[in-house]
């Protein structure tokens, strides 16, 4: 992992991470700590996640994050399978103090997000209890968190969760699009199906979008556009495709508060900004 000041490009290796394969990196509000997932290359040269870490950006003090993960079930083989941390990030402005949120990964994602408390006031971090902040009842919905490798696909701040979720039919991926979820009791409760923002209509094909992130005050959300938006939005509908070459910003849509809208018209109805990278500045150009 490398670090650098924002205004000067002076990358330096973060001590303690030299042998890791860091992904899904997030920085604490005070800029002193970072969390990330890591893993290893297996015998077939595939990257496999297996660990989540917290590291001091100045001190190099690295500690494994204690994650509460259950074992998954692989319908392809009928076997039980280990669930590894797919993504980890700071729970920014959590009502319970400093927390790190995470969710697991098995062959079809997870339906729960947990947050573990941590005291960073001393020389070394001290972890406390873990609690659920999202638990989707898959008897009511087959929506599960969609884990993109190496990126933060789902983030939490204050009383809000924003990220990519997928539906499955059996063990087949069906539909992927972003969800906006409000955590009850000001972020102290556990969000469920009833706390998901309700679109006027649910797409029957994937709209994708990735690279999800949210402002730390939970007011603004940003994501790649995927297939979302009209002709003026840089998205996969363009010819040539503008996939992963632009992003859009919207307010956080609150369940029960934000009026329901067509998922394809969210940028036209509520978009704050549309942005894209001109051809001459793209990697490989």
Q: What average pLDDT do the residues reach?
A: 82
Low-confidence segments, given as residue ranges, are 72-80
Q: C-alpha Rg, in Å?
A: 19 Å
Contiguous helical run count: 1
Strand portion: 35-45%
> Quick one: how many beta strands?
20
Strand arrangement, major sheet: 3-4-5-6
Q: In CATH's first tier, which class applies?
A: Mainly Beta
Any overview of this molecule?
- Mean pLDDT is 82; it is low at 72-80.
- This protein has one domain (2-281): Methylamine Dehydrogenase, Chain H (7 Propeller), CATH 2.130.10.
- By secondary structure, the chain is mostly beta strands.
- The protein is 2% helix and 40% strand.
- Strands 3-4-5-6 form a four-stranded antiparallel beta sheet, with no helix packed on it. A four-stranded antiparallel beta sheet has the order 9-10-11-12, with no helix packed on it. Strands 13, 14, 15 and 16 form a four-stranded antiparallel beta sheet that branches.
- A hairpin with a 5-residue loop joins β17 and β18 (220-224).
- The protein contains one helix and 20 strands.
- The longest helix has 5 residues, at 266-270.
- The radius of gyration is 19 Å and the shape is globular.
- It has one helix at residues 266-270, and strands at 2-3, 12-13, 23-27, 33-41, 47-56, 62-64, 72-74, 79-81, 84-90, 99-105, 112-119, 126-135, 143-145, 154-157, 160-169, 172-182, 213-214, 220-224, 246-251, 273-276.
